[in-house]
Specification:
5 strands, 3 helices, alpha+beta
């Protein structure tokens, strides 16, 4: 389990030897929403093409950092046998490292 900033929690589950499918469930403060399984890369490809045409990323810098930190924390959690890893701590480490590189 990975704890994310803003009191969010993400859990990734899967089966190693079965059919693969994608989708998700979001538990918000006031509702639960099921994310549909998407069998097409069309929306992503359109966003990528628009990015190349306009230079405007489809996702904010902060959201990109949180996504990266979530994936990094998931890798760390896996390496630690599933123990919780704070995404906020990963973000702080990344920002510290970035600040060092700017000098």
């Amino acid at each position: 389990m990975i704890t994310i900033m803003k009191r969010r929690i993400g859990t990734v589950r899967g089966l190693r030897s079965s059919e693969h499918s994608y989708g998700g469930t979001v538990f918000a403060e006031k509702k639960i929403e099921v994310l549909p399984m998407v069998h097409s890369y069309d929306p992503m490809m359109k966003a990528i093409a628009l990015f190349f045409a306009t230079g405007q990323p489809p996702v904010s810098r902060e959201e990109t950092i949180e996504i990266y930190a979530f994936m990094s924390a998931a890798d760390r959690s896996k390496a630690l046998g599933g123990r919780p890893v704070s995404v906020a701590d990963v973000v702080a480490e990344v920002r510290t490292e970035a600040a060092k590189r700017k000098k």
